[in-house]
Every structure is written in C-alpha cells, then in structure tokens.
Specification:
6 strands; D-lactate dehydrogenase (NAD+) activity; 150 residues; D-LDH-like; Rossmann fold; NAD; 2 domains; 5 helices; 39% helix; D-isomer_DH_CS1; globular; alpha/beta; two-stranded antiparallel sheet
C-alpha cells in the first residue's frame, strides 16, 4: 500500500524490460513508515498486535480506547530481551484523526459511524485508513466523497 509493492510486483514483470526507468521513478517515491504516526483505535488483542508492528517499524504510535485508559505493551526479542512500552489512550478520537498518517480501527460493533464526513475533513491529506473492525465503523458514502475530493 505505502511501498507500492502490489502494483510493482504486477507491472515490473510485464513492463519492466521496456519501461524500467519510468516505473522505477514511480516506485522510488514510496513512503517510509518510520517516523510516521500510527493511530490505533481499540486497545484489544488485535489493536495491541498492530501497535507492536508499528513500534517495530519505527512509527510514532498513538491510541484511543474509551474503556482502556492505559496499556503496557511488552515486545519480546529473540535473545530473551524485552522492552515494555506504556501506551496512554489519547483524550479523543479527534486527536487520532488530526495527528495520524495511518489510522487502524479495531473496535467491536458500534451504534453509528466513528468516521463520517466531519472526521474525514479533520484528517491529514493522504492519511491511510485500515478498518480491521466490523462494518459500520466508516460511513462509506463519506469515504467515497473524501476520496473524490482528494
């Protein structure tokens, strides 16, 4: 998604011989994950594993969970060492929307959308969303409108 791997794995074998220089220019513009902000909504089991991946990629991680104010996350390494990260839930979803380059949702079924037109307007340009939660978290009509708007 961020590194254009899906597209490059498809196009390079087909067009790499004839258009290598053009394709290389397109794919070298990929984003690095390190230093970007990952916003995780939901500090359950899957949200915690997502945070571990973000930390491993060198991302700045912020999280929101209205039921879990803090969580200690332990990363275990191959040589028996481990590090514990203290994750404190931010005060509001608005903070997640405004600060995150990537937002990943890991919440149970909701009444109403967590992301609608107003929330999309708060997000950074180019913010990426992963909805690993159930349907109904994101207003799909607002999503299409936001994508069309750029």
């Amino acid at each position: 998604m961020v590194r254009h791997l899906h597209d490059s794995n498809r196009k390079m074998p087909l067009e790499g011989d004839s258009q290598f220089k053009q394709l290389k220019k397109v794919y070298e513009d990929a984003n690095e994950m390190a230093g970007k902000t990952l916003g995780v909504v939901g500090l359950g089991r899957i949200g915690i594993e997502t945070i571990k991946i973000g930390i491993g990629l060198g991302m700045n991680v912020i999280a929101y969970d209205k039921f879990i104010p803090t969580k200690d996350i332990q990363l275990n390494f191959f040589d028996g060492q481990s590090l514990t990260f203290h994750i404190k839930s931010v005060d509001s979803l608005e903070t997640i929307y405004k600060q995150s380059d990537f937002i990943s949702f890991h919440v149970p079924a909701q009444d109403g959308y967590l992301v609608g037109e107003a929330e999309f307007k708060m997000m950074k340009n180019g913010a990426m969303i992963v909805n690993a939660a159930r349907g109904g978290v994101i207003d799909e009509k607002a999503l299409v409108k936001a994508l069309d708007a750029g």
